[in-house]
Amino acid sequence: MTSLRTVAALMATAALPLAALTLTAGAAAAFDPAAMTESEKAAFGEAVRDYIMTNPQVLIEAVNSLEEQRLADEAKNDRVMVETNKAEIFDDGHSWVGGNPDGDLTMVEFIDYRCGVCRKVNAEVEELVKSDGNIRWILKEFPILGQESDLSSRFAIAVKQTLGADAYKIAHDRLMALRGPATLEAFGELAKAEGWDAAALIQRMNTEEVSAEIRKNHQLAERMRVMGTPTFIVGPEMLRGVPSTGLAGAVEQVRASMKG
After folding, report:
1. What is the rounded distance in angstroms from the CA atom of residue 120 to the CA atom of residue 31?
2. Among the three residues 56, 82, 108, which one is the final residue of a domain in this structure?
3. CATH code (residue 159)
């Protein structure tokens, strides 16, 4: 969000060339605001106002330019963080890995099962990984929306640690589709429907092995300044949310930039 102070500064910057021309030729050639007299300051302020009133598009252009620079700086900082933490991001040894394990591009997704956007975009993610065929897909359990989020992640991780990757993906899909409360009773029913030992899985949920995985993901998210879900890391780029152009378009752009 651009503050009024920033807008004022942009106005002054945008109007500076014209304002300088209102002073003497010598003063314009060596413009020093600190050396201005009161009358010169008044003239400068009036010139700024007149210029902006006559050319309001300059202010919009300046604000847009500032926003573009801010976004570029953030993207650059994100790429540095990805490079610095790449071992924990792409090969942490505990996160589920799907898609094409030998794909030319890795896509990491921080998820929360109670996140409405995660649920909404899940079908798009699945379709992208399937249709592309060359994406290595990693899921990071990142429960941040309360107790039901935490319990859901604990159940999914307990399934993975006990029954393996294929069972985890089944649990993941079922939890993404779960419309009722995420309770131990719901997890028990889910487990029984799949022929799993519900009591053993629920007991596993509260172990240090499960807690450690969630803790490591939270520590990584803190270092990466991940504040919400879903957050994606596609190759060297971070996508904080779902791009307006869609994930497929973002993947295409990342691939193009990596080849360039």
Report:
1. 56
2. 82
3. 3.40.30.10
